[in-house]
Amino acid sequence: QTMHHHQLLTCLVYTIFLGSRVGASNLETARELKAPTPEQTEGAEFEGSDFWEIHSNVLKNAWKELQSEIPNRLLKLHRGHVNTELRDVVESAWTAGAGNDRRQSLEDAEEKIKGLWTLVAPGVFAGQLLEPSKIVDIRQYLQAAYESGIPLRRPNGMNRYGVILDSDADGAVGLDGLEAFYQYLVDDYARPLGRLLFSDFVGETDDIESFGFTIRYKGGEDVYLREHSDASLITLNVNLNLQEDEDYEGSNIYFVDENNQKHNSTFTPGMAMIHRGLIRHAAHPIMKGERTNMILWLFGDDGYVRVAPYDEREQLSPQ
């Protein structure tokens, strides 16, 4: 405990010293910080957490300063980045009329949406979420984050490379356009899709919280992911590779069914897989190139993850 307090005091003194330099901005201060190097590949959710907690305010203000420097470099991320066919069906559901007509319209939209998603393993659906040609705009935000000089926190307890998208987390990327798009995907796609495809497990408050991050696999960094389950009720995993970068080899994902059988699946740019977080899965080693993905987790208050199914009478229905 004494060592823990000593580390906290050292971080605090270092921050005050840097911040007190004449003319030092938060961005300059952040760029001089030495973040802890991510090392563990399992159970490392809180690795270096003292650093990120102590420097939280400096880092958040640094991102605000950075955004004022690059206002025209990053394009706005919006509905046009979502696959056209999926977006049109989803938006038609939002604009449905009232009463019986609305209910019928929603039921029709649900069937159309289900038709756009294919069962690729027991309990795992795949479909086109993003327009491949528009992914470059999202990747430019990630590139801006990598080139910012601002320390980046590891995305989760297993992956060491990638970024956190959720601004509530210490060490997250603070680019407003990127977070707004992440929240848009959660509210308009991940949550409705989870409720539609897994209606027997998702109640009204079981998916109200979210956590978003990106991961990256390449030689010299993370090359594979051990078999695991997620800390989520619903996981949406979308490929952010550019079409010209699709020459990577390996890195297939496999899912494990109730009979312990493995089912291999592959990604293409903009393609997403959605499944319950408790389904065990892993990523095979990447042999060539690079793979980048965005992951969205949904869960209840305080990280609650429902396991038991609802009775049919308790399941959510079209409103």
Write the layout of secondary structure elements.
Elements: H1 2-19, H2 26-32, H3 49-54, H4 56-69, H5 84-94, H6 99-115, E1 118-121, E2 124-128, H7 135-147, H8 176-197, E3 209-218, E4 225-228, E5 234-239, E6 249-250, E7 253-256, E8 262-265, E9 271-276, E10 281-283, E11 286-288, E12 290-299
Antiparallel strand pairs: 1-2, 2-9, 3-12, 4-10, 5-9, 5-12, 6-11, 7-8, 7-10
Helix pairs in contact: 2-4, 5-6
Brief summary:
The protein is built from eight helices and twelve strands. It has 319 residues and is an alpha+beta fold.
Defining key terms:
319 residues; 6-stranded antiparallel beta sheet; 8 helices; globular
Explain the overall architecture.
The protein has helices at 2-19, 26-32, 49-54, 56-69, 84-94, 99-115, 135-147, 176-197, and strands spanning 118-121, 124-128, 209-218, 225-228, 234-239, 249-250, 253-256, 262-265, 271-276, 281-283, 286-288, 290-299. With 319 residues, it is α+β, with helices and mostly antiparallel strands. Strands 1-2-9-5-12-3 form a six-stranded antiparallel β-sheet, with helices on one face. The chain has a four-stranded antiparallel β-sheet with strand order 4-10-7-8, with no helix packed on it. Helix 2 (26-32) crosses helix 4 (56-69) and helix 5 runs antiparallel to helix 6 (99-115). The protein is globular, with a radius of gyration of 21 Å. The protein starts with a helix and ends in a 20-residue tail after the last strand. The mean pLDDT is 90.
